[in-house]
Every structure is written in C-alpha cells, then in structure tokens.
C-alpha cells in the first residue's frame, strides 16, 4: 500500500492551516484606509467632471436656455463645480479616515468618521476574511471579504456585493498599518 497520497494530504492540510494562522497573525492591529476603488462611484465622478467641463459647449443660445435655463453657462458651471468639489471632499474624508482594528480576541472595531461599529472577525476555510459586524441599530451583517494583498504594512481588501440589478460590484480598499 502506497502511503504517499496520505502524506501529501497531511502536508496540504498542515500547509493550509499554517497559512491561515499566519494571515490571522499578520492582520492584527489597526489599519487606516488610504484608497478606495469602486467602479460605479469612480465612473460617476469621472462622468460628472466631464459633464461640468463640457456643458454648453457648442450649443446655441436657444439650446442653452432650453437645457439649462440660462445663457450664463460659466456661472452655472462654477456652481456645479462647487457642489462636485464638496461631494468629492466628503468622499475623500471617508476614504482616508476609515479604520479597521483587528484584535487577538477576534473582535474588530470598524471606524468611520463620527462612528464606530463593533464585530467579530475570522478567516474562513476558503481564505476569506469574514466580518460579523453589528451596527448602531443592533443589526448584524456578515461581510465576506477577499484579502488581495497583505504584506508588511499594506492590506488590500476586495468587498463584494450584489447590486439591485443583480450584478456583482467590487470595492477594493487599500489600508496602511497605523504605527503606535
């Protein structure tokens, strides 16, 4: 009887178990978000900027009055740019002030500007980071997150959710470890 397959299976189980254990140890600590990539949101801001920059270009006065209610497109463009800048600044504030604090007891503190949510975390058998998060209303949400990159002081997570249209949307968040 050949014992090689049994040794191979045992080695594979030990290797996978040790990888999960190393990931769990490496993820401990406090992480601050530095960049969020979300296709839908990023497309919206890019398209909005393009619209503001080009609105009214090449339109007749009649068309400008019909579409925008004014001939003073420059003033309208300036007002829209202020609104855009305000929304973009708020987004960047959230993007750079959100935190994850993974603790050894499997608790996690998810921090957003002005609020913290508590939960539990673990790495499941598929290698996904699972956050069981309780919001301020006492509702628990289960998030399944792919760990794309975890090296030294950089952590990149892919959050996946299904949209109302039934397609999968992914947000990729890059974190930097906070120094004590």
Automatic annotation (TrEMBL):
It comes from the Bacteria. This is Lipocalin-like domain-containing protein. The lineage of its organism: Bacteria, Pseudomonadati, Bacteroidota, Chitinophagia, Chitinophagales.
